[in-house]
């Protein structure tokens, strides 16, 4: 290990540290992809086709949202000039290889809208200007492609900056500004793109329902879940990356604090949306909420998602001791991911089951659920491939940290 | 601690002072206080971590705020039990907003008074470990120590570079 270059800031850490991970993980991931693909084939051939499509929508929202969300966090940390995140940023960058797959799944979903979207079966003339298939395909593809493109630019420029620093060049002001500008673009684009995704893949499945709060609620809960994904990645990969104190109790404590804040913020948005709908008491707005949280077979699942994903993590994350122990925080992060994933299921599936006049049909074809394994395997493969190829610490981020520290000293 | 004594060390430079605090922490001492002419953020991690009682003030204030403001909403609604917009007079959904505001307001007020009380801002005497030089150009550490670790503490402070080590009873 000592043959490799050492960090001046953090002795004992390889600035060129790369992933050394057991080979069986790769094999298991490939197996997961195969199982996922087989489940898709079986599901689409043997079960009611709408159920497999709905599983695909749910997993797209969960895994696509998480993969993009962790990259958005890398951009947010860049904009905020965070000095504690060089390793966390690189974990965020590592999902970049999965985004083209997300884009591909989006194309498949858009081509199959007639199989699972109720407004295609029963068109609403008054909303036809928005709810029509060509426009839906164009706007979603354009928005997601923009997001993926910006993400690729961010990662590429970050790697170029690393290479410049590795060659012994100073991190130029231009390079720094360039990285910041694309990070700002991502943080601005993200709310718009994910609001659109939430409108088209959740809200419009109950085509008469609308809520202006729903977009913000969706993209906020998505980056909340992405924080949990970062924690899981950090705990599982941290010891294999040899990044020293860049991924230690202090960083996990900060990630835990962010999760705590976002759990509270998400619950606040949930209540704000509920309150406005409760006040107006318009049937066109209330039925979506009543069906999931107040009356009927979906109520236990709706509240279970809320309690598992938000309430319990909020209570557990009060503990500083827990947040400083990665192995404990890992379980809270898994709770968050499970809760938010279940919430996505509850937001998507009842709308279509209601439209099909099967409101009590809670569990979709379970074999198709295994498509989620395929998503997981592909995500793991993409992350491992990235972290094997590129250093786990961005040298540019480390150089920026020194610049920020110097600037702060001058100001003091 | 019945047989505890206080050892006060005076330092005329910051690195030695910081090193002494680090050594005390590394040796497992948990009862010591630091003094200096300026507030230095970087010694915070070297100080013993004690749970602050301000949290209790904030929590008690917050619970009182929640109950009190909910009570205010319910009581005033019941004075004129009118049905407005088809909603029952006691509608807890909007009262959550008021209850939440009360929680934050009285929680913050509780925390404020907690700081005032625990910081002993109205106190006229000075802590027993204080030396007037700590308001001038020196830094100081006051360690509460049991007799069997007395020599260890003196040696530790002197090795770190204390210019003076004094033993006191209080």
Structure explained in plain terms:
- The complex is a heterodimer of chains A (412) and B (170).
- Chain A is an all-alpha fold and 412 residues long.
- Chain A has one domain (23-395).
- Helices cover 75% and strands 0% of the residues of chain A.
- Chain A is globular and about 65 Å long.
- Mean pLDDT of chain A is 90; it is low at 1-14.
- By secondary structure, chain B is of the alpha+beta class.
- Chain B folds into two domains: 4-37 and 136-168, 2-Layer Sandwich (Alpha-Beta Plaits); 54-118, no CATH class.
- Helix content of chain B is 45%, strand content 15%.
- Chain B contains four helices and four strands.
- Chain B has helices at residues 14-26, 54-79, 92-118, 150-160, and strands spanning 4-11, 32-35, 139-146, 164-168.
- Chain B is rod-shaped.
- The N and C termini of chain B lie close together (11 Å).
- The relative contact order of chain B is 0.30.
- The model of chain B has no long low-confidence stretch (mean pLDDT 88).
- At the A-B interface, helix 10 of A face helix 3 of B.
Question: Strand fraction band of chain B?
Answer: 5-15%
By DSSP, the count of extended strands of chain B is 4
Tell me, rounded to a whole number, the average pLDDT of chain B.
88
- What's the mean pLDDT score of chain A? 90
Output the number of helix runs of chain A: 17
Q: Please state how the strands of the largest beta sheet of chain B are arranged side by side.
A: 2-3-1-4
By CATH, the architecture of the largest domain in chain B is named: 2-Layer Sandwich
Taking pLDDT < 50 over at least 5 consecutive residues as the criterion, the unreliable ranges of chain A are 1-14
Outline of chain A, from the CA principal axes? globular
> Rounded to an integer, what's the Rg of chain A over CA atoms?
22 Å
Q: How far is the N terminus from the C terminus of chain A?
A: 38 Å
Q: Helix share of residues of chain A? A: over 70%
What is the CA-based Rg of chain B, rounded? 25 Å
End-to-end Cα distance of chain B: 11 Å
